[in-house]
Amino acid sequence: MTDKIENLVVGGGAMGLSIAYGLMKKGREAHVLEGAYLNAGSTGRGLGVLKERNPYAMGNGNEDLVKLAREGLRLHGSLSSVMGINTFHKKSGCLIVAKNEQDLRELREDHEHFVKLGLKDIEMTPEEVQAKWPYIDSESILAGFYSPDEANAHPFGLVWAYLENLKRMGGKVEKENKVKEIKKTSDGFLVKAQSGDYEAENVIVASAIDSSGLTEPLGYKIPMTPMRKEVLISEAVRPFFGPTIERLSTHLQVTQTMRGEIMGTIDWMEPGHDLSENTTQFLNNLADALVPVVPVLRNLNVIRQWTGICDLTPDEKPAIGQLEECLYVCCGFHDYGITMVPIVGKLLSETIIKKKTERMLEPFDPKRFD
Ligand SMILES: Cc1cc2nc3c(=O)[nH]c(=O)nc-3n(C[C@H](O)[C@H](O)[C@H](O)COP(=O)(O)OP(=O)(O)OC[C@H]3O[C@@H](n4cnc5c(N)ncnc54)[C@H](O)[C@@H]3O)c2cc1C
Q1: What is the mean pLDDT of residues 316-344?
Q2: Cα of 309 to ligand 1 centre, how many Å?
Q3: For the residues of 145-209, what is the DSSP string, one character each?
Q4: Which residues pair with 247 in a beta bridge?
Q5: Does ligand 1 come within 6 angstroms of the Cβ of 318?
Q6: Which of 256, 290, 287, 253 is nearest to 268 (CA)?
Q7: Which residues of 172-194 are buried (b: 16+ CB within 10 A; e: fewer)?
Q8: Between vectors from CA 137 to CA 119 and to CA 152, what angle results, nearest 5°?
Q9: For atom 41 of ligand 1, which residue has the closest CA?
């Protein structure tokens, strides 16, 4: 048993590290227990596309996700200089293409919503798109909706930046130390982990899809469905890609990394936990959707394919905040969490310190599913 820890964070993904960083920056103690290795979770499998035009905000008819995403995007812009470590942030922009009339209708509805919220969402004709990015075939699209403000970052760079800053401030991050159980005691919590027991004043569960397994025995179920999402990466080619290209209805998202690889994802596969299975169906779907839009990619060699798990809540919004005094949770970020990492870490650490939920986090009350 160690001395009582002020803030024990369960999960060393980008969210857990960002919360610990926010606490340490304000002079508090933080100790992170990661069950596997850093980047073992969805952070290490993400593309790192940073978007404020959050598509899930639409169906929910609210502005909350957009606000969080917008602030996250803004903070990402200065992270490398604030942290002194390169997060490989690049303001590359993002172009959402309409391939058919239904796409166009939806994107125009979204456009109204985004513009009302003060976001940049510029409608472009196919000809305007091709004039700006000649590798896009204008005949394959009906329109494009462009944001020059959206960006990319490297999820590994983000994790290293938080880790190094945590270490510098005296924070502790233990790897391969899985938390098995959290028990309430008369004056805090007893956290039972693989390498021993820990007494903690505050516990923050940031274990993505595994969070509910830890909070449910304490009486707090966070309903989440694990969704498999596949990604592929190609051989490196000369840097020519401008913005990330997206198509809403198929979840196509393709970008070029700083090394020149083309990296992309498309569609939801079956709900499931299996990380080992990569499908040719995914490969074919992605090629079928991408090649007509960017024909020059026709003969590109794919080098690697992998799967990640998204933690999907019933209303597609995350669960962030207090469950009971001194117990907090932060999960359910689906496929858009990397964008929100810096702002969520900031707001949740402030919530913990002030013992009062920050206004921007109120819509994400983790107890709303009761
Ligand atoms: C394929 C894919 C692509 C994506 N692309 C993007 C994108 O382009 N842009 C974007 O903004 N978002 C994207 N996302 C979403 C984003 O990756 C996640 O929302 C974000 O990384 C979540 O961070 P996290 O820290 O909550 O979770 P994780 O990174 O999963 O971290 C949780 C950690 O908790 C640990 N853990 C679990 N149980 C325990 C336990 N009992 N004890 C200790 N540790 C435990 C895990 O090992 C893990 O390291 C993508 C997601 C996927 C799967």
Answers
A1: 97
A2: 8
A3: EEESS-EE--HHHHHHHHHHHHHHTT-EEESS--EEEEEEETTEEEEEETTEEEEEEEEEE--GG
A4: 252
A5: no
A6: 253
A7: bbeeebebeebebeeebbebebe
A8: 40
A9: 179
Cβ-contact 6, 29 below 8 angstroms? yes
Q: Are strands 225-236 and 261-265 parallel, antiparallel or unpaired?
A: antiparallel
CA–CA gap between residue 24 and residue 170 (Å, rounded):
8
CA of 298 to the centre of ligand 1 (A): 31
The pTM is what? 0.97
Only one residue has tokens 């992998």, namely 306
Q: What is the CATH number of domain 91-150+225-312?
A: 3.30.9.10
**Three-class DSSP category at 250:** helix
Name residue 185's amino acid.
T
Contacts of 369 by beta carbon, 8 Å cutoff, 6+ apart:
221, 222, 223, 313, 314, 319
The H-or-E segment that residue 73 falls in is: helix 64-83
What pLDDT score was predicted for residue 249? 79
Pocket perturbation via mutation, ligand 1, pick of 335, 340, 343 by most ligand atoms within 8 A of CB: 335
Q: What is the CATH number of domain 5-46+156-223+315-369?
A: 3.50.50.60
Instruction: Say how many Å lie between the CA of residue 45 and the centre of ligand 1.
Output: 8
Domain ranges of the chain: 5-46+156-223+315-369, 91-150+225-312
Kindly state if the Cβ of 153 falls inside 6 Å of ligand 1: no
15: number of CA atoms within 13 Å, CB side?
A: 31
Segment 331-359 shows an average pLDDT of: 97
What separation in Å is there between the alpha carbon of 231 and the centre of ligand 1?
14
The model's pLDDT over 271-328, given as tens digits with 9 standing for 90+, comes to: 877 777 788 999 999 999 999 999 999 999 999 999 999 999 999 999 999 999 999 9
Is it true that 5-46+156-223+315-369 and 91-150+225-312 share their CATH fold? no
Compute, in degrees rounded to 10, the torsion defined by CA atoms 182, 184, 185, 191. 10
Residue carrying the six token digits 């830890």 = 214
- Which residue CA neighbors atom 53 of ligand 1 most closely? 308
Backbone angles phi, psi at 311, to 5 degrees: -105, 100
Report residue 62 as tokens.
């609210």
Q: Look at residue 60 and tell me whether its pLDDT is greater than 60.
A: no
